Amino acid sequence: MPSARHIRWAKFRVLTVSAAAVVILSILAYLLTGGTLLTKRATMYLYIPDATGLEPGAPVRVDGIGVGKVRSVDLSGSTEPNRVVKLTLTVERDRLASIPDDSTAQIASETMIGDQFVDISSGTSRHFVSAGGEIVFKGSPDLLKTLDIGQFEKQLKVVSALLDDIEQGRGDLGQFVQGDQMYSDLRKRFAQIEGGIRAAASTTSNVGRELHTDLLYQQISQPLIELDRSLARLQSGQGSAGQLLRDSAQYEKLRSDMEDLGRSIADLRAAEFIQSDSLYTDWNRRVLSLIESVDAFNRGPAMTTTQVYDNLNGFARELQDTVRDFRQNPRKFMRIKAF
Asked: Is residue 17 part of a domain?
């Protein structure tokens, strides 16, 4: 028999899954409705003579902008030819302010065989339709009156030219229908693909050897086996890393060294050099004194005038002349004078 703890845990899991399912279903319903699930809606009515091709759920558009859907299509019970079918429209309430009360509606479709929808054309009145109001129906114009005969003739000529090209084998589509070149090319391609698959499945190719032998398996499994062996040696205490894990002496030594380092840092932080600025002030004073000495030397006559440089330059030239004379006539400097 399960324990009370297991029962509580099972209830908690069921509750969590149920809450997650409710949240997911709510989000899904919100997305499926196009984000308009909580939008306030209003009801409008439209009477039409015939509802052929129009079903509940059909879009309702105002000047091409979707504002709602057809909620129901019913018989009105009226004997008037233009009021035989009653359409109940559900539109967004905030869109009523953009539909004048003299607007007209008609049943339209995007293409000749497409789904039909209610197309409302805005009027020019300053008053707008209220909730529960009626939209006046306006019959659709005759297709033959609105059909562009010239454009239709051009389209027929294009279709006729396309059929002629197919019949005479011109173009890619004509060659595909009338000739066998494209069929032969496709057959060659498939033959090449089949040959590649057979070569891959053959045991003599590289891919075939990888598929039919255990070489690839050995290449993958060998590093894993070596890793397992390394972990086993580490677990058994072999090597320096294993000894570190099995024996706590190295850990204690490392911990002692870290504690000594911490105490050294604490002593350094407690030193006078860190705690007080007297040493810094003394060093700063000495540096300022050295700077002043250098400035005084720069202001001295040795740096501000050329007299010392001229004396040294003259002495160097005299010494150079004396050395030159000594090298040319050393006897001149070796005379002995008798007193």
From this structure: yes
Q: Is 121 in contact with 138 (CB distance < 8 Å)?
A: yes
Assess whether 105 and 158 both reside in one domain.
no
Question: Do 70 and 126 share a domain, yes or no?
Answer: yes
Q: Phi and psi of 202, rounded to 5°?
A: -70, 145
Q: Read off the pLDDT of residues 237-250 as tens digits, 9 standing for 90 and up.
A: 777 777 766 777 77
Instruction: State the DSSP H helix or E strand holding residue 131, giving kind and residue range, or none if neither.
Output: none
Overall number of domains in the chain: 5
Instruction: Tell me, yes or no, whether 133 and 56 share the same domain.
Output: yes
Same domain, 57 and 76: yes
73 and 109 housed in the same domain: yes
Report the residue count for the chain. Answer: 339
Count Cβ atoms below 10 Å from residue 230 Cβ, excluding itself: 14
Is the domain of 226 the same as that of 257?
yes
Is 55 in the same domain as 132?
A: yes
Q: Is residue 116 part of a domain?
A: yes
**Residues 127 and 161 sit within 8 Å (Cβ to Cβ):** no
Type and span of the H or E element at 92: strand 85-92
Number of separate helices (H) and strands (E) present in the chain: 13, 7
Mean predicted lDDT score pLDDT of the chain? 77
Residues (pLDDT < 50) of the chain are: 143-146, 338-339
Give the tokens for residue 251: 């850990």
Range of the domain at 248: 214-270
Residue 33's pLDDT is: 59
pTM of the entire structure?
Answer: 0.35
Reported as type and span, the H/E element at residue 48 is strand 41-48
Burial tier of 89 (Cβ tally within 10 Å: 0-12, 13-18, 19+): buried
- Rounded (10°) angle between helices 239-246 and 215-235: 50
* 200 domain residue, yes or no: no
In a domain, 291, yes or no: yes
What is the pairing mode between strands 85-92 and 41-48?
antiparallel
Q: Are 63 and 121 a contacting pair, CB within 8 Å?
A: yes
Query: What's the pLDDT score for residue 177?
Result: 67
How far is 83 from 49, CA to CA, in rounded Å?
Answer: 5
- pLDDT score, position 36: 52
